[in-house]
Structure formats: C-alpha cells, structure tokens
C-alpha cells in the first residue's frame, strides 16, 4: 500500500518528545487490515517514508483511530520543516519479509 498526502507537522510532548504527521483518515481502515499481516507489535506498521528529497524507514503509530508518521530530526532539518508546517509525504507499507507492498 502506498499513500501520498499533505499533512501538518505536530509536536508530542510525551515522555519521549517527537514530531509526527497524521495519515489521512481514509487510509485508516486499509492500514488496520494491513497491520494484521505486517505489525510487529502494538499495531505498529513498518514503512518507507519520503518527504521531499529525504527518504527514511520508520513505523506508523496507531493513534486515536488513525496512524501517525514520526519525523526524525535529520528529516526535519534536511527538509527545513517544523511544528505547524504542512508538507507532502509519501508512505509505502513494508511486509515482514523486507519487501515493499
């Protein structure tokens, strides 16, 4: 599954602070189905993500019926984005065997 979307970056101040973007609501049902096959625990879904010229591997976090994509500091710095900025993202879900679907 591949998703392309525009989203606003938000900051979570939890015990381990981090920046995220929410995937579109319409992707939620498809992702929940895929999670049954690809999740490695707690509903996390491994993905390959891209923002501008920067690509990275991470996992989607289930959050309030949706999924959130974490943004590493290196990604935010390379692309010059931060809290409250909107940007275009590409996300491709991975399967456990390591091949992308």
TrEMBL record:
Gene3D superfamilies: AF2212/PG0164-like. InterPro entries: AF2212/PG0164-like_sf, DUF1905. This is DUF1905 domain-containing protein. It comes from Allobranchiibius huperziae.
